[in-house]
Amino acid sequence: MSTxxxxxRLVACVGGYGSSSDAGAGGITVLAVxxxxxxxxxxxxxxxxxxxxxxxYSPSTRTLYAVDERKNDGxxxxxxxxxxxxxxxxxxxxxxxxxxxxxxxxPRPTYLALDEHRGVLVTANHGxxxxxxxxxRADDGTWTVGYLYDDSTVLLYGLEPDGRIxxxxxxxxxxxxxxxxxxxxxxxxxxxxxxxxxxxxxxxxGRYVLVADKGTDRILVHALGDxxxxxxxxxxxxxxxxxHIAFDPLSDRAYxxxxxxxALASFAFDRESGRLRPLDRIPTVAPDHRGPNEPAEVRVxxxxxxxxxxNRGEDSVAWFRVADDGTLTRAGDxxxxxxxxxxxxxxxxxxxxxxxxxxxxxxPADLVRSYAVDGDDGSLSPLTETRVPQPAFIVFAELxx
Length: 401
Prior knowledge:
With 401 residues, this protein is mainly beta. The protein is 0% helix and 52% strand. It has a 4-stranded antiparallel β-sheet, with no helix packed on it. The chain has a 4-stranded antiparallel β-sheet with strand order 4-5-6-7, with no helix packed on it. It has a 4-stranded antiparallel β-sheet with strand order 8-9-12-13, with no helix packed on it. It is globular and about 75 Å long.
């Protein structure tokens, strides 16, 4: 008697930002996704964590991890603290059940990286732009004012066998700042007044964690073990603002969105030493674009031939052809909803596991948009869309139960 393996069913988990004016905003929405991406059907939603700005999924334990992207509100908090949550994903219908959470020291956890083999979860905590004026008497007896800013941190958690988040194993507090004030419209030109880790990516070998610190124009490379140990620092030109990093699954190349200089950079990555070698850097917008722009997410197509970026200002998802030597050529774009400002714009997108379609979390439009992907020329063609209030991040899960 022969047995047939069940056909995986695809769901998309959509993290969103909460809003006092929209009771349906925030939390995580689960969508059923047709195999070709042409149909998106809401299945269920959980309201917490409310500020679910980033997600990661573990197939081995069917666990979804989510940040709660908050800043703790003082000595007597009335809101939950910044934290990371684990939720189980039902193999039957994708329904989410809360498992546990852990505090995330440092405001605004904004990125998650998962290593199932090691059983660890890494977060990058961005910190706010707000400052505190500290009044003190100088050495000469005069009164003066100093300025204190949030710490930005990178956190390493262990994971339990059932997917729950274990103890916090290591905390790295990022030092320094970049040019302040600078040319970014964020925070009135004070977007580099302190360190701001915006991603912490585990390289394909699993040996290193690369942290893009947009506040200090640096990419920090840590060896991944029981702790995070800094082994290399790549310093970008001033006011570059490295934001997100994506690795080519078929080579040792890394691609970086440069938020403040509106550029896409390609690097060769040495998996032995952890060092980065620059290959190319080009604008993320079309030559005729006028006005500010700050790119956010970067993704590499599974075939390794195209890199995709979403622009906040041009308000597009653009794709770039990759040459054999790592040089880049912008090949086209599709336009999405107009951003209100870089902080309220489409923040991310992701490919389905086969790379045949792409979903965009278009926050200003309150939509998740689906596009067919042409693997030969990289182009995107609209398929469908569905309403999800203030979507921020999307991750796929395959259900096989």
